[in-house]
Write a structure and sequence with these properties.
mainly alpha, extended, 5 helices, 78% helix
């Protein structure tokens, strides 16, 4: 297999694999009725006095947090797949990544609406996109900060090189 093809597969695999994981999360296996019992068992083990209301609140909080986290990861994976090596933050690239995440989120909620034990919600698309947008914001801050750091370091190196070079010439 040519090295360029291996590199392309390496870049694209995480995005495609995580998209498939989200599709699996969209199945009946991850319905609230299925995850609630496991979560209750864990939380009751940690806090035996936890009330039913608190359990419901924590279950909802964890499920919404899972939306945000899953789509933050999806956003990062697609950024890696579409970017030339995490070098530049480009608005057009970010827009493509966010559109992919929005498409997956809409498909995910539509798919859930077809499952008898699931419900699709436009609000969940909002949670999904908050994770994707939050990830892109953090990525933009990191990449622009990294670029500024490299620029400052290069300027300091250049200044120290100039300071070390002799300014007067030796007599002949």
């Amino acid at each position: 297999m040519p090295k360029n093809l291996q590199f392309q597969l390496f870049r694209w695999f995480p995005a495609l694999a995580w998209t498939a994981v989200i599709a699996w999360f969209s199945s009946a296996t991850f319905a609230a009725s299925e995850t609630g019992g496991v979560l209750e068992w864990v939380l009751k083990g940690l806090w035996p006095t936890l009330s039913a209301g608190h359990l419901d609140f924590l279950h909802t909080l964890l499920r919404k947090g899972a939306h945000v986290t899953a789509y933050a990861i999806l956003s990062l994976c697609w950024f890696q797949a579409l970017s030339p090596g995490f070098k530049l933050w480009q608005p057009a690239l970010v827009l493509r990544v966010l559109l992919i995440c929005l498409s997956v989120a809409c498909w995910d909620e539509y798919h859930q609406s077809l499952q008898p034990s699931r419900t699709g919600s436009i609000w969940d698309v909002g949670w999904d996109m908050s994770g994707a947008l939050g990830q892109q914001t953090l990525l933009a801050l990191w990449l622009t900060g990294r670029k500024k750091t490299r620029t400052v370091m290069a300027e300091q190196l250049q200044a120290s090189d100039q300071a070390e070079s002799p300014t007067t010439s030796l007599p002949a």
